[in-house]
Amino acid sequence: ETGVTQTPRHLVMGMTNKKSLKCEQHLGHNAMYWYKQSAKKPLELMFVYNFKEQTENNSVPSRFSPECPNSSHLFLHLHTLQPEDSALYLCASSQALAGGDTQYFGPGTRLTVL
Amino acid sequence: AQSVSQHNHHVILSEAASLELGCNYSYGGTVNLFWYVQYPGQHLQLLLKYFSGDPLVKGIKGFEAEFIKSKFSFNLRKPSVQWSDTAEYFCAVNAPGGGADGLTFGKGTHLIIQP
Description:
The complex is a heterodimer. By secondary structure, chain A is mainly beta. In chain A, 0% of the residues lie in helices and 56% in strands. Chain A starts with a strand and ends with a strand. By secondary structure, chain B is mainly β. In chain B, a hairpin with a 5-residue loop joins strand 7 (56-58) and strand 8. In chain B, the strands form 3 sheets. In chain B, strands 2, 5, 6, 10, 11 and 12 form a 6-stranded mixed sheet that branches. Helix content of chain B is 0%, strand content 50%. At the A-B interface, strand 4, strand 5 and strand 10 of A face strand 5, strand 6, strand 10 and strand 11 of B.
């Protein structure tokens, strides 16, 4: 356990569905991140939040919509996804955005888009 | 933007063999460097990191890595591997002055240790 939890662990959805991924960190951190891990590709940074404010959107399509209501919770709202969006979505947190801070990762949500 | 290259995608070793996994990054400014490990069925966890000071850093489970600035490298080493080291290893970089707040990862190296 890293102190970062993600739900659900597995999700299957159709292209017309709307679903949300949830991440919660119990570490008292101020920065939270969404990453995408696809087969045969490097982990890709999607979004960064610091003190609930989005500081980075790494050219992610608008069908992915993040939400950070407080420093402990991060959501990723999904709608009209494509099959190529099937991947492992990882959430991470760190004490601050300072580059040397360790990021702690959750177990991920395995998403399959049919 | 920075990028990370891991040269070996699959490595198979016998127990007690020495290990070196290559990692090169492309960014000319100050960097923070990380090695993460993902054991089968587990989450990503930090193995070691470099952000300043001694370029030879020691991590958990007997791993170490050396930052060589002139070569833009941060290779991971272990003198004698064990079966339990079987895992996926990821090199990552963060460039504080590079405009990105998150980590840029390499593609990973799948390490298999044979008993």
